[in-house]
Design goal:
The chain is mostly helical and 28 residues long. It is 82% helix and 0% strand. This is KRAB domain-containing protein. It holds the Pfam family KRAB.
């Protein structure tokens, strides 16, 4: 699975938008 697919299936549901925004630049 690519990071985008994985994020939508698992991480996106567990992380809040605030945490997601913090991880976005870090994962890129």
């Amino acid at each position: 699975l690519s990071w985008e697919q994985f994020s939508f299936e698992g991480v996106a549901t567990e992380f809040t938008q605030e945490e997601w925004e913090c991880l976005n630049p870090a994962q890129r």
